[in-house]
Amino acid sequence: MLTPTGAALLAHFVDEKGMSPVMKAQTIGYGAGSKDLHIPNVLRIIKGEIDDALISDRIEMLETNVDDVTGQVLGNLIEELMNAGARDVSIIPATMKKGRSGHVIQVDSQNLRIRRCLPGKIIEETGSLGVRDNTYKTQVDRTTRNG
Asked: Which of 83, 95, 121, 147 is most deeply buried (CB count within 10 A of its CB)?
């Protein structure tokens, strides 16, 4: 069971994979609802501070290969994808099958709703036959600084 307020809090603080940020707990509070139910009607809230040293980053990369696309189309594709909400777009020259020159298109997006619409945009603009969705979870040590 979930109240509308509880649903709103979860939607705001939890990402699409069900992960909340890693934090150091500062205060824990409990409360009981006034309605008498057959299950406990209680709430626990943990207030904390996000621990930047323990943040996990997810690299969400869409990728496709194209071999018959002009530079003008690729330049327009970058603009279209960035306007659609992509975080970053890379186009890398590559040698394709049978020695043909081509490109690897990589698109980074952190928002699931945006990431779902980008493959269609890539296929529409380039004529690609498909787009790979590569998602990697990495542990980032943000306390180490390169000097």
From this structure: 121
